[in-house]
Each structure stands twice: as structure tokens, then as C-alpha cells.
Amino acid sequence: MEEYKYCPICGNILKVGIFNGKERKHCPHCAFINYKNPLPSVGAIAVKEDKVLLIKRGIEPGKGIWAPPSGFVELGETPEKAVLRELKEETGMSGEVERLLGVYRESAKIYGDILVIMYLVKLNGGTLIAGDDARDAKFFDITKLPDLRFNSFKSAIEEI
Ligand SMILES: [Zn+2]
Q1: Distance between CA atoms of 160 and 158, rounded to whole angstroms?
Q2: Do 28 and 50 belong to one domain?
Q3: How far is the CA of 109 from the centre of ligand 1 (A)?
Q4: I want to staple 152 with a disulfide (CB 3.0 to 4.6 A). Which of 9, 51, 116, 138 is the partner?
Q5: The domain containing residue 85 runs over which residues?
Q6: How many Å lie between the centroid of ligand 1 and the Cα of residue 35?
Q7: What separation in Å is there between the alpha carbon of 24 and the centre of ligand 1?
């Protein structure tokens, strides 16, 4: 993760101080404090009968592996809306959120800490076609899933 050297608001050099019990960079000229937080992302365990819909990831982290449709929450979006958007973009399928499966922590080289919010999604329509950053999309029997690599995905599957 890149470190700020200058205030992204007013351009002055940042100083290090203690805020909320931790050393953080801050700007002495304006109110900016350089909080570092995980990036919120969402993932869908999308099911139809005894099958789970997975995509082959086209981008890092985990490029080339089979994984649940997932992505970052956009500004102004609820996590529920984000997960259905990602599902649609990556698989062409639509669905509805059944329930929250869990919230997990991952960390990736380019993005740093990632907060992964996993939902159980019941599929209810659409045409299966891989899109956006997914290279492929297909249904797997729930008893014959490939290695999902990331703990967040594995734990969410265990919840169902
Ligand atoms: Zn400033």
C-alpha cells in the first residue's frame, strides 16, 4: 500500500501523531487524519438447488482460480445491492439475498486489508454468461467444489 506523504486535501506535509490510541499521519493545517481501513467487498454464494455458481477469476488476487462472484462495494451502494450487481456483471444471473453468511478478513498485495462480506444468494433468473473480470462461469455440485483458496470463501461455504 502506498503511503501518503502530503495531505490529499490541502497539500501540506503530513506529521505523525497519536489519534485514537494509534500513531497516524495527520495534517496540522486541516482536519485530515490518515486513517487506514480495510476495503469493503462482497461475495455471493449463489445457489440453485444443490449447485453453486462459481466464476474463474480473471484478475488478481487469485487470478485463474474458481471463486464465488465477488467485488468491491461502490460508493453509495449497500452491500446487498453490491453483491447482486457483481453477480449480474460476472455471471449474467440475477438473484435475491437470502442471508448474511459471515464477515471475514483477507489481505492482498495491491489492496492491503480487505473486509469480505459473504451472502447466500438464491438465483432466480438471467442467462449464464461470464462477464466483466470473470473468465468463465459455471455451476458446481455442492459436494464437488474446487479449492476456493481464500478462507473467506471456504468459511462462507461451510456456513451452508
Ligand atoms: Zn491538510
Answers
A1: 5
A2: no
A3: 28
A4: 116
A5: 39-159
A6: 14
A7: 14
What's the total number of domains in the chain?
2
Are 70 and 119 contained in the same domain? yes
For 95, the grid coordinates are 438473484
Dump pLDDT digits (tens) for 63-106: 899 999 999 999 999 999 999 999 999 999 999 999 999 999 99
C-alpha cell at 99: 442471508
pLDDT of res. 1: 56
Burial grade of 129 (CB within 10 A; 0-12, 13-18, 19 or more):
exposed
- Residue 110 C-alpha cell reads as 495491491
CATH of the domain at 84: 3.90.79.10
State whether residue 49 is helix, strand or coil: coil
Check whether 50 has a pLDDT greater than 70: yes
Residue 14 CA to ligand 1 center (angstroms) comes to: 8
